[in-house]
Design a protein that fits this description.
Blueprint lengths: L7 H9 L30 E6 L7 H17 L3 E5 L4 H13 L2 E6 L4 H13 L3 E5 L10 E5 L1 H19 L5 E6 L5 H20 L3 E7 L5 H14 L3 E6 L2 H13 L15 H9 L5 E3 L2 H16 L8 E4 L6 E7 L2 E3 L4 H6 L5 H4 L4 H7 L4
The site of beta-D-glucopyranose (BGC) has 12 residues, from loops.
C-alpha cells in the first residue's frame, strides 16, 4: 500500500530535469510523454521520495514515521514513495537512485551514517532534486532542510530523568552505565551531549560514579544486550543505566531480569514505544522520552510538499552543521519526558492506543496509571 499519485505536472517536472517520469510502484497515471499545457502546470507537484533507515533500531520508523508521512502526503494529494533501507547502506543508495530515476523531485532521508548519506544527497542535488534530512542531520551533507527534535534536549531529559529515578531509589554514590546510540548517528552524539551535561558534573563532584560507557553500533538491540551483559559482569554494582532509546533500554532490562535486578536499577529510554511504555508500567524502566512524531512528520511533509510544488518553504530556525559549519534551515520540535505518572499523555496524544498498551498483565497497571 505505497500508492502515490503522479500528476501530469510531476511528469513534466521530471522531464524538465531530463529524467524519465515513470511513476513509482502503484502509479497509474504516469506517462513520461505527458507534457503539460501552461495552464495545467500551475498545480505542479513533483514526486516525493522518502528513505527510512531500518525497522529494528526503533519501532518508530515503520509504526509512526511511515504512517504519519503517508497520511500527510495523501491529504495533500501529492505523489510519494516511502521505502525502508533495512539497515543496508548499499540498498539505501540503490533506493535513492531508483527514486530519482522514477522522477522524484524531492528526496527526504534518514541517513544510516553521514558519509553514505552525503553521497546520496550529493547525487540528488546534482540532478536538481531538493533534499531534506529527516530526524538525523547528515554532517557535511548540505541538505536544503533539516526536520527533527531538539536532540540535545532529548539527552538532557534522559539525564535529568535518571537523576530523578536514582533520587527516588535513594542510592548513595550510584555507579552509572551509559549505553549510547550508534556512533555514526549525529543524534546519538547530541543525546550524549545532553545527558553527559547532566551526569558529568555529578561524576566530577563524586555524587555519582562513572561506570562503563559504550556506544552500540547501528543501535543494534541484540548487540546492546551483549554489551550490557559484559558491563554488568565487569561492574556488578551498576545502579543506573542511561540507555539512549527504548530498544537499548529493553536490552539492558533483559539482562537485568536475568540477574534479578530489574526494577531495582533504573533504566532510561526514548521513543515512547509500546515496549518502552510497558516496561515503564511494569516498573522495569524509569522513563522514556516522547517525541510527537506526527508533528515531525507533518513539518517535514509540509516542507517536501512545498518543494515539490517548486516553492521555497520557510523553516523556523537553523541548525549548525558541525562539520561544514553551515547553518541548515531547520524545524526542531520539543521532546517530553515520560514517567509512570504521565504515560497517559502519550495515549491521550494518540501516539499509542490503550488497546495495544494495556494488554494482559498491563491492564491493571494502566488503570493505576490513569489510562482511560
Ligand atoms: C532517532 C531515535 C531512534 C534512533 C534509532 C535516532 O536517530 O532520533 O528516535 O530511536 O535513531 O533508530
Amino acid at each position: 500500500m505505497r500508492k502515490g499519485i503522479l500528476s501530469l505536472s510531476a511528469a513534466a517536472a521530471a522531464m524538465t530535469l531530463g529524467l524519465t517520469a515513470c511513476g513509482g510502484e502503484g502509479d497509474t497515471s504516469a506517462q513520461s510523454s505527458a507534457a503539460p499545457s501552461g495552464a495545467a502546470s500551475q498545480a505542479a507537484a513533483g514526486k516525493i521520495g522518502v528513505i527510512l533507515p531500518d525497522s529494528k533500531s526503533s519501532a518508530r520508523w515503520e509504526t509512526a514515521d511511515r504512517k504519519f508521512l503517508e497520511e500527510a502526503f495523501k491529504a495533500a494529494g501529492v505523489a510519494y514513495d516511502i521505502q525502508n533501507a533495512q539497515g543496508d547502506k548499499n540498498q539505501f543508495q540503490t533506493i535513492a537512485d531508483q527514486m530519482i530515476t522514477n522522477g522524484a523531485t524531492v528526496l527526504m532521508i534518514v541517513n544510516l551514517d553521514s558519509g553514505t548519506g552525503k553521497a546520496v544527497l550529493d547525487k540528488a542535488k546534482a540532478q536538481g532534486v531538493a533534499t531534506i534530512d529527516y530526524d538525523r542531520l547528515t554532517l557535511n551533507g548540505g541538505a536544503s532542510y533539516y526536520v527533527s527534535f531538539d536532540n540535545t534536549k532529548v539527552g538532557t531529559l534522559q539525564g535529568e530523568g535518571l537523576v530523578k529515578c536514582l533520587a527516588d531509589k535513594k542510592v548513595e554514590k550510584p555507579i552509572v552505565a551509559e549505553l549510547n546510540g550508534s556512533p555514526t548517528d549525529n543524534n546519538a552524539t547530541l543525546f550524549k551531549n545532553g545527558y553527559d551535561g547532566v551526569l558529568q558534573p555529578k561524576y566530577d563532584s563524586g555524587e555519582y560514579v562513572k561506570g562503563p560507557d559504550q556506544s552500540v553500533p547501528d543501535w543494534d538491540n541484540a548487540q546492546a544486550a551483549t554489551i550490557f551483559e559484559q558491563m554488568l559482569t565487569e561492574q556488578p554494582k551498576i545502579a543506573g543505566v542511561l540507555a539512549a532509546n527504548d530498544g537499548l533500554g529493553n536490552a539492558a532490562i533483559t539482562v537485568l531480569k536475568k540477574n534479578k535486578l530489574n526494577g531495582k536499577v533504573p533504566v532510561t529510554g526514548q521513543d515512547a514505544t509500546v515496549q518502552g511504555l510497558q516496561n515503564i508500567l511494569a516498573g522495569d524502566q524509569c522513563m522514556t522520552v516522547y517525541k510527537a512524531i506526527k508533528k515531525e512528520a507533518d513539518a517535514a511533509a509540509q516542507l517536501a510538499i512545498g518543494l515539490a510544488k517548486g516553492e521555497k518553504p520557510a523553516a523556523t530556525g537553523t541548525v549548525k552543521d558541525t562539520e561544514s559549519g553551515a547553518d541548515v534551515p531547520a524545524v526542531l520540535l520539543e521532546p517530553q519526558a515520560i514517567f509512570f505518572e504521565n504515560v497517559k499523555d502519550v495515549v491521550n496524544d494518540g501516539f499509542v492506543t490503550k488497546e495495544e498498551l494495556c494488554t494482559g498483565e498491563f491492564a491493571a497497571k494502566c488503570t493505576e496509571a490513569g489510562i482511560q
